[in-house]
């Protein structure tokens, strides 16, 4: 296995000889001046350049990470290499593929049939959404077999089956022979991703392009898939190009890193050098924006008060599945949020954290137990009281593009609660709307803009402005920054903290990201399979967790530091 | 799977009872007295009317008539017409014509509709796609009656490519033209549904995966895109087969084909209650059975339905 330390120890002097070239061994894949632009409106509008003059080398057996934020061109570059971008893309430059002992081939401009022979056999891909990337109507076995049938026609049916079983056991899927008969929907996200990896490796490709392979997965599952990838490096000679936005994943797995921004390569460096001494200003910004669990002390805005802003008492939430069986999403959770306090609800998908948020908003059925929201108890108090209380609760959802009406200007969206609940009209309404936009650091002149004119981070700030428009006593924030890039996330979190400090509302902050929680919360509650595992002061829960699950959760999230990540690996192994 | 079939069969019984009851009530509500109509212009003697009413149980309450009818059905008796013929016998002569016509039309829909939809979907935005789309709009906007009469006039009478009317020349010659006429409407829907389905499927992540695996385009489309796209189209095709079997009235009239549709039309005109109910019941059973069949076929094609 190539240790990141030894990669970092290679002399760096040769690095700058040619753009993107790497020292020593001959590269498996040599990308030079790759450009991708998209034709708009069949050429009636100017082309949009997505990738401009990108060069990098992929060395035999290495893991090369390409990092960047959305729109940086990292995924487009990888799809362009295999001609998978569709007919509106114009691809230029050169990409020479040719591992040791393999016939060299130029991928850019290669004709369709020859390209189809390269895909899967010499360069394979793994995509982000593993469950969507497998055809839902064929078994896993069929889809693996299909790959082998296409590229290894000499194998007999029995040989192909043996190879499929071998591949599935290589990615550490339990009962590989039985899994062949499974359909994709019968696998979990992590298992489906392992099948994808197995399929990609079926024909021993020279290069594996992995596009955000663990982004859609929970941290503990991500950890397992990363482990699988890591161990694969010891067994197969395939070079891996890891496309990701997650600096933690980079630190965990990569040997060298290419940093991209706005379609261009900003910096190429061995992983340790990149984290220890980033040369490009953008790399430094990117690294600084990554939240880390540090658990430093911070004053809490919580006030002691007789009545909590939000209280769950022995809350049980059950849903019915299609056969009418009860599925318990929340199982006897007692938790309260004091006025002015930010309580983070942490857990993986299916832990019940969003159900609790929905309960607080009166959107989920309370099977037993009670919920008390700003002094009222939905289901006990009169509907009128409950409705009145609802105007004192704000909410921010994960996907701002979906939670803002696309046909309302952002001013109308922010003003709507004021119009409905506060009865503001005319100049007073305009003044208040402008104030709210400014409080989330958006220019007041933007009131007449529409959601599609704003970026994701700006939209989320609009959501925050709308949520705080009535001066709420309680804010429910459900994964408000999970859909955002790290640098954008950092600014949104800043705005959020600022607004919370000045307005002093209580907040239930639902998140899967422990580092974000650490930056924001006063107290942390950890949920697992609907049960409350652990709750307490942030520094205590994140700094010295009492429960095994919390510890696992903390250990699973890769830290953006190769040295520490290596130490963690070493301790995990012993 | 067995549970699924059992559940669907139970649903089927409920729907069957509901629909036959509604038809019974509607036939009863038809204006005019069928017994009085039997005598033509001359009024029948009151004792004859009373006897006929009793023989056909028209003096009983509707619900009782309905239950009596259901009882007969259980023994395989579809009832007797006012002329004393067995409804089952009358239909037996006509079923082959209607079934042949409907299946021919359905075959045209499946073949052409799926093919046109696939071509349009694969070339979304291209000239061929736009032509197919425009064609389907034109086709759906022409009333069946107009289409039937013009087809008969041009292709039948003027060009003599097809027989003008009747079933004398047998399958396929005699059936092709009327079948094509009734297929046009469904064909347009199938083509458009298939097109949308193909476009959606081509956009999915798994098609990208298949291409990244290096599969030939022929395999990607022939094996994966076709199967996924067929599932929504199939549901439509099933409902349409039912529509074709029952909706051949106009075409059977224009082309003078002695089918069930014509029988139903005549029965409605003559207030032939037992025949109307008998034909409708038979059509409902066919409709329900094709739906059940397609449901099962869909669950074979789509494992997610199967494991629900």
Description:
- The complex is a heterodimer of chains A (574) and B (308).
- In chain A, α8 (189-200) runs parallel beside α9 and α10 packs across α23 (562-573).
- Chain A has 23 helices and 19 strands.
- The longest helix of chain A has 18 residues, at 486-503.
- Chain A is globular.
- Chain A is α/β, with parallel strands linked by helices and 574 residues long.
- Chain A has 2 domains: 27-288, P-loop containing nucleotide triphosphate hydrolases (Rossmann fold), CATH 3.40.50; 310-543, 3-Layer(aba) Sandwich (Rossmann fold), CATH 3.40.50.300.
- Chain B has 308 residues and is mainly alpha-helical.
- Chain B is 78% helix and 0% strand.
- Chain B has helices spanning 2-29, 34-38, 46-55, 62-74, 87-122, 127-141, 144-158, 173-203, 205-212, 217-246, 249-254, 260-269, 273-301, 303-306.
- Chain B is globular and about 85 Å long.
- The model of chain B has no long low-confidence stretch (mean pLDDT 83).
- At the A-B interface, α3 and α5 of A face α9 and α10 of B.
What is the strand and helix layout of this fold?
The complex is a heterodimer of chains A (574) and B (308).
Chain A: H1 4-9, E1 29-40, E2 45-58, E3 63-67, H2 74-81, E4 89-97, E5 105-106, H3 112-118, E6 123-126, H4 130-133, H5 140-151, H6 157-170, H7 176-179, H8 189-200, E7 207-211, H9 219-235, E8 239-244, H10 247-253, E9 256-261, E10 264-270, H11 271-276, H12 281-289, E11 310-320, E12 326-337, E13 342-346, H13 353-360, E14 368-373, H14 383-390, E15 393-396, H15 400-403, H16 410-422, H17 426-439, H18 456-467, E16 474-478, H19 486-503, E17 506-511, H20 514-520, E18 523-528, E19 531-537, H21 538-543, H22 548-556, H23 562-573
Chain B: H1 2-29, H2 34-38, H3 46-55, H4 62-74, H5 87-122, H6 127-141, H7 144-158, H8 173-203, H9 205-212, H10 217-246, H11 249-254, H12 260-269, H13 273-301, H14 303-306
Helix pairs in contact in B: 1-13, 5-6, 5-8, 5-10, 6-8, 7-8, 8-10, 10-13, 12-13
């Amino acid at each position: 296995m190539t240790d990141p330390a030894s990669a970092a120890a290679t002399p760096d002097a040769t690095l700058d000889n040619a753009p993107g070239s790497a020292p020593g061994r001959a590269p498996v894949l040599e990308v030079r001046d790759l450009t991708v632009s998209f034709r708009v409106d069949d050429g009636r509008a100017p082309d949009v350049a997505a990738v401009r003059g990108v060069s990098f080398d992929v060395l035999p057996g290495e893991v090369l990470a390409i990092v960047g934020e959305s729109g940086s061109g990292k995924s487009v570059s990888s799809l362009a290499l295999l001609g998978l971008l569709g007919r509106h893309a114009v691809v230029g430059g050169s990409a020479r593929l040719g591992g040791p002992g393999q016939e060299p081939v130029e991928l850019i401009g290669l004709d369709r049939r020859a390209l189809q022979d390269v895909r899967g056999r010499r360069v394979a891909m793994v995509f982000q959404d593993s469950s969507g990337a497998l055809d839902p109507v064929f078994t896993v076995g069929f889809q693996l077999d299909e790959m082998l049938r296409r590229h290894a026609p000499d194998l007999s049916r029995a040989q192909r089956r043996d190879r499929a079983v071998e591949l599935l056991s290589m990615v550490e899927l339990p009962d590989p022979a039985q899994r062949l008969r499974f359909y994709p929907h019968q696998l979990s996200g992590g298992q489906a991703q392992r099948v994808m990896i197995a399929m990609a490796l079926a024909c021993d490709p020279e290069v594996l392009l992995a596009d955000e392979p663990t982004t859609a997965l929970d941290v503990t599952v991500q950890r397992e898939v990363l482990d699988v990838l890591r161990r694969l490096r010891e067994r197969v000679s395939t070079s891996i190009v890891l496309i990701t936005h997650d600096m933690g994943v980079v630190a965990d797995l990569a040997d060298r890193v290419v940093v991209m921004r706005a379609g261009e390569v900003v910096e190429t460096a061995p992983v340790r050098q990149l984290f220890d001494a980033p040369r490009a200003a953008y790399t430094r910004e990117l690294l600084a924006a990554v939240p880390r669990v540090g658990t430093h002390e911070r004053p809490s805005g919580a006030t002691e008060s007789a009545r909590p802003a939000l209280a769950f008492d022995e809350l049980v939430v059950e849903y019915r599945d299609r056969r009418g069986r009860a599925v318990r999403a929340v199982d006897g959770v007692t938790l309260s949020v004091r006025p002015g306090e930010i309580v983070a609800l942490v857990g993986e998908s299916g832990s019940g954290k969003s159900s609790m948020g929905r309960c607080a908003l009166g959107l989920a059925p309370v099977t037993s137990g009670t919920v008390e929201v700003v002094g009222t108890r939905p289901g006990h108090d009169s509907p009128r009281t409950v409705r009145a209380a609802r105007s004192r609760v704000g909410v921010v959802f994960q996907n701002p593009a979906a939670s803002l009406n696309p046909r309302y200007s952002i001013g109308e969206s922010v003003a709507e609660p004021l119009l409905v609940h506060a009865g503001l009209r005319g100049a007073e309404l305009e003044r208040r709307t402008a104030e709210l936009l400014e409080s989330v650091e958006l220019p007041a002149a933007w009131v007449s803009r529409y959601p599609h004119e704003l970026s994701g981070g700006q939209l989320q700030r609009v959501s925050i402005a709308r949520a705080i428009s009535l001066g709420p006593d309680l804010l429910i924030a459900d994964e408000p920054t999970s859909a955002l890039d790290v640098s954008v996330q950092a600014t949104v979190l800043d705005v959020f903290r600022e607004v919370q400090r000045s307005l002093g509302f209580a907040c239930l902050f639902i998140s899967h990201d422990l580092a974000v929680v650490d930056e924001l919360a006063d107290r942390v509650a950890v949920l697992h399979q609907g049960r409350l595992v652990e709750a307490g002061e942030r520094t205590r829960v994140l700094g010295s967790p009492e429960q095994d699950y919390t510890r696992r959760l903390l250990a699973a999230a890769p830290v953006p530091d190769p040295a520490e990540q290596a130490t963690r690996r070493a301790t995990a192994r012993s | 799977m067995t549970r699924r079939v059992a559940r669907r069969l139970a649903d089927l019984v409920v729907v069957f009872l509901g629909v036959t009851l509604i038809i019974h009530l509607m036939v009863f509500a038809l204006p005019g007295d069928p017994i009085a109509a039997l005598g033509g212009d001359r009024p029948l003697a009151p004792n004859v009317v009373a006897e006929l009413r009793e023989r056909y149980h028209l003096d009983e309450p509707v619900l009782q008539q309905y239950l009596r009818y259901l009882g007969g059905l259980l023994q395989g008796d579809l009832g007797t017409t006012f002329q004393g013929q067995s409804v089952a016998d009358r239909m037996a002569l006509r079923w082959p014509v209607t079934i042949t016509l409907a299946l021919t039309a359905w075959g045209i829909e499946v073949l052409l509709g799926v093919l046109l939809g696939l071509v349009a979907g694969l070339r979304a935005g291209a000239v061929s796609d736009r032509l197919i789309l425009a064609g389907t709009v034109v086709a759906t906007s022409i009333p069946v009656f107009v289409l039937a009469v013009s087809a008969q006039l041009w292709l039948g009478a003027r060009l003599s490519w097809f027989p003008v009317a009747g079933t004398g020349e047998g399958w396929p010659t005699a059936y092709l033209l009327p079948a094509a006429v009734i297929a046009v409407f469904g064909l347009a829907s199938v083509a458009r549904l298939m097109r949308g389905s193909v476009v959606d499927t081509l956009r999915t992540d798994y098609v990208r995966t298949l291409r990244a695996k290096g599969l030939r385009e022929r395999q990607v489309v022939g094996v994966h895109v076709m199967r996924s796209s067929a599932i929504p189209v199939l549901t439509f095709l099933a409902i349409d087969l039912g529509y074709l079997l029952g909706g051949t009235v106009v075409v059977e009239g224009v082309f003078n084909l002695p089918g069930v549709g014509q029988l139903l039309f005549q029965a409605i005109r003559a207030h032939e209650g037992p025949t109307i109910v008998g034909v409708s019941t038979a059509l409902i059973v066919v409709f329900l059975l094709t739906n059940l069949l397609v449901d099962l076929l869909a669950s074979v094609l789509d494992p997610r339905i199967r494991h629900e």
